[in-house]
Amino acid sequence: MAGAVSYRDVFRVPEFRAMWLAELQSVAGDQLARVALSVLVFADTGSAALTGLTYALTFVPSLLGGIFLTGLADRFPRRDLILWIDGLRGCLILLVAIPAMPFWSLCVLVGIVSLLQPVFKSAQLALLPDVLGEERFSTGMAIRSITIQSAQMAGFAGGGLLIAVFNPYVVLVIDALTFFGSAILIRLRLQHRPAARTAPEPGARGSSLGQTWGLLFADRGMRALVLMLWLMALVAVYEGMAAPYAALFGGSAVTVGIILAADPLGSVIGAFLFSKFVPEHRRPGLLGPLSIAAAAPVALCLLRPNIVISVMLFVVAGAFGTIVVMQTTTAMTLRLPDARRGQAIGMSNSGLTTATGISPLLAGILSDKTNAATAIGWFGLAGTGAAVLLAIAWRRASRTAPVPTP
Predict the structure, then answer these.
(1) Phi and psi (nearest 5°) for 298?
(2) In whole angstroms, what is the distance from residue 145 CA to residue 271 CA?
(3) What is d(CA 66, CA 101) in angstroms, rounded to the nearest whole number?
(4) pLDDT at res. 364
């Protein structure tokens, strides 16, 4: 192993094991719920538009939560916040699982669950350096990336199988149980730590948000990290364009599924190889080239390669893109002051969520004028150009103020 910290070293930390297992089952449960909700709403309403709206509600409110609520991760003890959010989300999903629930009530409940997700994530990521210490943090982030992507694939596949055997209501109850199980693990295995910021700061809430945004863009190095993180969401436009891209080549629903599976498959491979064989001290310096390597394969869609080659390109893009997301998040977390860490991470993830939602919309508009391959390819080409500029900015910033490494 190239790095000084192995996976075994990280798993020897009891608190990390609890956090890892809690997140693993929670993420898998989320994917089960998305499949179940899609099937349930379409069966009840027969409307593809309402089904799409329900699915969107599992993502869109996260943007508001990331902007306005993630400061809670600094104002309250993070372990307690994680515990209560998981318990609340479990209760809300149980309400969703009640048969004959009115559609508007279902939308409100699902929206609240989505709204709470960035608060949970920011508290968890801000707590992780305290649990692992800086020397194990990077390897712990790699383990998270691998397991989250694996849990997403298992959740999507398992959701379909469980619905085939049981029904959507049973699957929703299982999702609720994963939240309760996560809360119990956190309650029993994580020690209490005081809040990072114990007293409210003078000034309005808007001032606090502005200060955190200023922290994210405080210097050239931090700006490059944030923009590289957001760029990876724009480059991964092929996920949102999977259906029209498959149709361009005469593919079926199976083809769509294969395209959707390409990115998480690449993510697992990339995170594993990078964390295993790239030494800690070399990782920050590779961020620029890796960003370019994530965007360049997507640009090759301009050549309209066949579906097999396209999927291979998406796997490669997913591998490099996940490494960039993992490494930029690691570098940002280590640079952020603890008193602002939760809110800053939550707001940067809000930008990531926004970019994830905007890119398929813009690509779809462009695709209507051209075709799916051309639209995706232009996004890849533009992303490659942006990655080159960010790589230069990051290299210059690293020379003047080296990034702290474990």
Answers:
(1) -70, -35
(2) 7
(3) 28
(4) 81
The Cα–Cα gap between 73 and 69 comes to: 8
CB count in 10 Å sphere of residue 130: 16
Alpha-carbon gap, residue 103 to 387, rounded angstroms: 43
Which has the closest alpha carbon to 191: 12, 13, 5? 13
What's the pLDDT band for 276 if we cut at 50, 70, 90? confident
Residue type at 276? K
Query: Could you give the C-alpha distances from 367 to 89, 239, 385, in angstroms and in order?
Result: 37, 14, 21
Four-residue CA torsion sign, 55, 363, 357, 332: positive
Is residue 346 within 8 Å of 70, Cβ to Cβ?
yes
Distance CA 31, CA 157 (A): 9
User: CA torsion 220→225→227→229, rounded to 10°?
Assistant: 180
In the numeric block, which tokens belong to residue 387?
Answer: 């990655």
**For residues 276 and 282, is the Cβ–Cβ distance under 8 A?**
no
- Indicate the pTM of the whole model: 0.75
How far out from the chain centre does Cα 278 lie? Answer: 23
Nearest CA among 181, 221, 326 for reference residue 266: 326
Continuous segment of H or E residues that includes residue 107: helix 103-132
What pLDDT digit, counting tens, does each position of 15-51 carry? 999 999 988 888 877 777 777 776 777 777 776 556 6
Q: Are 66 and 194 in contact (CB under 8 A)?
A: no
What's residue 356's pLDDT? 75
339 and 198 in contact (C-beta within 8 Å)?
no
Burial of 9 (0-12, 13-18, 19+ CB in 10 A): middle
Least confident of 120-134, 347-361, 367-381: 347-361
